[in-house]
Specification:
By secondary structure, the chain is α+β, with helices and mostly antiparallel strands. It has a domain of 93 residues: Fusion Protein Consisting Of Minor Coat Protein, Glycine Rich Linker, Tola, And A His Tag, Chain: A, Domain 2 (2-Layer Sandwich). 25% of the residues lie in helices and 12% in strands. It is flat and about 160 Å long.
Amino acid sequence: MQIKKNIKANVGRNSSLYFAVGLNVMLALTYLGLEHKTYNKTTTKVETLMVEAQIEEDIPITRIEISPPPPSPPPQQTISEVITLVEDTAEVEETFIESTEIGQDDVIGDPAVVRVEEVEVIEVEEEVEVPFAVIEKVPQFPGCTGTNEALKACFQSKMQAHILKNFRYPEIASELNMQGRVFVTYLIDEQGEVTKIKSRGPDPILEEEAERIIKLLPKMIPGKQRNVPVRVPYSIPITFKLQG
């Protein structure tokens, strides 16, 4: 007898479906196991505060005794003075007080005659300074001649030539890149000498060099005001600038 196999009895025909379902179930269980969280449970003890007993307690009444005020002091008795009129029968001698002030007729000390000797009057020459711009005759630089305007132009030209001839840039200032303008002021006195040299600039090294140049100025013919030699102040700027 031949054994016939039922087609519906084939167990392996849905094996792939079962495998897929089982795989999904395992993945779901694994995910839930990894994502599952647990928390520590703490017990909270709730206590009830009973305040009824405290409220019902009787509060004792405190009595404050106030002492009576001190008695007021007795009123002070006023004593009235009795004035008795007495007849003035005694004679009172008047006292004269001599004045201590000195009058015109009083003699002080030794009445000897004081002789005043002759007082010698010394004439003091007033030092007059007239600005270079308004002086009647400006100081003459050696080699300058002509009118006052010509002397001014020649003076300034000679000054520029003198500065260019004696100018020397300080080595330290060159290394430190020092530059700037130095204003120098000086005075040409009654003898034509250059005095009272002052300078103002960005650095003492440049000021010292500018003063050295002015000290080399020659002696000049002094300026005159009303034909009288006077002092003449003069100022000039000297620029220190490095090339390149």
